[in-house]
Amino acid sequence: MSQPPYRSQQTRPPAVAGLFYPAEPARLRADVESMLTGARADADAAPTPPAALIVPHAGYVYSGPTAALAWARAESLRGRVRRVVLLGPAHRMGVRALALPGHRAMDTPLGPVTVEVPAQIEALASSSLVVARPDVHAAEHSLEVQLPFLLTVLPEASVVPLAVGRVDADRVAEAIRPFLGGSDTLVVVSSDLSHYLPQAEARRVDDATIERILALRADISPDEACGATCINALLLAAGEQGLGPRLLGTATSADTIGTPERVVGYGAIAFDAPAAP
């Protein structure tokens, strides 16, 4: 990949503000703070800050409280983490690579988040594993909906936003390994779970999926999670480093305002470094 796409001075405008989350800054900030407050009240004491998170990415009225359970765990990293490597599925545009937006920043109603392209990611362009594709990011929500939480919890952090297309999980893991467990980096995988099943069936499917995630089994299918490739890549890398997954909470869209006849499942999972001997 050539240098200019990495260093574009353009800012990606928000695509789903007013749809997936409020477009008015004061309301958005109040909603995010309220969800984080609720998550803190429900949280168990955590022995260590997370090295990675799995976070849902639906509209805030559906999955926001579950997403907050994960982002609240990241608050202990404030002042330490300077970048978030953020991976999510490319829903709208096909790409056989990990796509960067080709912009210097990604804007939100709360302000912009600086886009960083570390040398480890730039090096992956030589094999075309990483490409600059503004069109892939233009209408994509899976990464964007995480940014208001990121700005609130880790306001000084930059983002490495990778929209993951049709790529094998072991190749995607190449983009995670250099950062996972680093003292200055948090890895975040953005993914929902099952889609459009009846509530009882969704619970059954999601429980089985989460059981395999907690066992570090990198065999999640796209029917079980829209970000299955990202999750599997994280599980491969986490297993190599001995990270321990920890379930923070689950829900479906019917637990908020959705209908129980056709739900989407959500899970928040943290990956903690192994305890010192």
Secondary structure blueprint with pairings:
Layout: H1 3-6, E1 11-12, H2 25-42, E2 50-55, H3 60-73, E3 83-89, E4 98-100, E5 105-106, E6 113-114, H4 119-122, E7 130-132, H5 134-138, H6 147-153, E8 158-164, H7 169-176, E9 185-190, E10 195-197, H8 199-214, H9 228-241, E11 244-252, E12 263-272
Parallel strand pairs: 1-5, 2-9, 3-8, 3-9, 4-7
Antiparallel strand pairs: 2-12, 4-8, 5-6, 10-12, 11-12
Write up this protein.
Strands 2, 3, 4, 7, 8, 9, 10, 11 and 12 form a nine-stranded mixed β-sheet that branches. Strands 1-5-6 form a three-stranded mixed β-sheet. The model has no long low-confidence stretch (mean pLDDT 94). It has a single domain, classed as LigB-like (Protocatechuate 4,5-dioxygenase, Chain B). It is α/β, with parallel strands linked by helices and 277 residues long. 32% of the residues lie in helices and 22% in strands. α2 crosses α3. The protein has nine helices and twelve strands. 51% of the residues are buried. The protein is globular. The longest helix has 18 residues.
